[in-house]
Amino acid sequence: MPAIKRILIANRGEIAVRVIRTCRALGIETVLAVSEADRDGLGARLATRSVCIGPSRSTDSYLKVGTIIEAALGTQCDAIHPGYGFLSENQALAAACDENDIIFIGPDAVQIEAVGDKLTARQHAIDAKVPLVPGGNVSTPQQAAALASEIGFPLLIKAVSGGGGRGMKRVDRVEGIESMYDLAVSEATAAFGDGRVYMERLVTVGRHVEVQILSDGKTILHVGERDCSVQRRYQKVVEEAPAPCLPTKMRDDILEAALRFSRHIGYRSLGTVEFLVDCERDEFYFLEMNARIQVEHPVTEAISGMDLVAAQIAIAEGQPLTLTQSDIQLKGHSFECRVNAEDISADFRPSPGQVGDVWFPSATGLRVDTHIQSGAMISPHYDSMIAKVITWGETRDIALQRMRDILSICVLDGVKTNIPLHRVILDDDDFIKGGVDTNYLGQLLEKVPANTMTGIGG
Length: 458
Prior knowledge:
By secondary structure, this protein is of the alpha+beta class. 33% of the residues lie in helices and 28% in strands.
């Protein structure tokens, strides 16, 4: 397969800027597909060129497979990088790339389908002998009630095509199954065009731990694990690598399970295998595999010294991995804080508008991934994340203190942000100790209500 010379980036925001910077380092030209709202963004200025693919609404631009393919063909691009979100795990885009002799920087359509359908992914986990949360697929309220009697309460009804908590409903007693089943199906149909649901026992005290995978189709390697347990309504807020306070045997077992799952499906590309650690039972379960670059990949890059986007591109070119598992040496500790333009005092309502001054210091162990500069406009049409602040240190304490220092002096004016929330988290004793579960942030917000938090960006 020939080397990639020009890539169409079918995404926006900080991940578009992130991919452009790696392409520049590799000497690869970039064409950024932009909506009308993003014509004047930082990504459009950094790319070799940009091409408008439609109106501001993502359904009229970033989510149109045919338009993306036309843009790539019209600009003579060898490949498409989908980033994360939008069409990054869309098998139709991967298939369309194959049909048009365009390299899709990710796995092929068959593999995307294998992990994108959660029921299929569960069966692959069973076949690969990877632990699963007790549960199964259900197609009627009656089936749901029957399965509930086997796995017990509380439980979750989840959308097969879901993500980010949409199409997910908690049920605590048998009387609530029918109404919650109907609600989950309705919400899943509206959000994903797929009303299929399945059911799992709810792990009431759990941690979200995920493993970074690299595979050229023959050699499969892991680049350690990340902890993503600090979440609000299933949306990640703070991530770190490695996962703190994880028993050595469990860590090793999780890493091996991720490799086993990836090997079973013949995975080829960059990917992430996600697990739920049951803190009460000291067990872990397969959640899903994400066949794309993750938002939180910088913490893995920080402790490994690797450029995961460069590795992703090399695999897409057909280059074999030259590393062995022992070559991947993980050092120190890293945190990532997602900075969102939202008003935390008004139930985290998005805060679009024009940014005033933006300034992040230059400091040891600091990386900031953002598409925002002074005077930039934050569109109401997209996700509210505007920056990722990443710190690294020789120890967890050093990396944590560096993050505190950065978030206490950075400047981001003009819009409300969640920086005050991050500062409260970083100073909280339970977080400092490490190993918090997915209930942590909700419990913290009960103790320290968001409308009492003040400070930078507040």
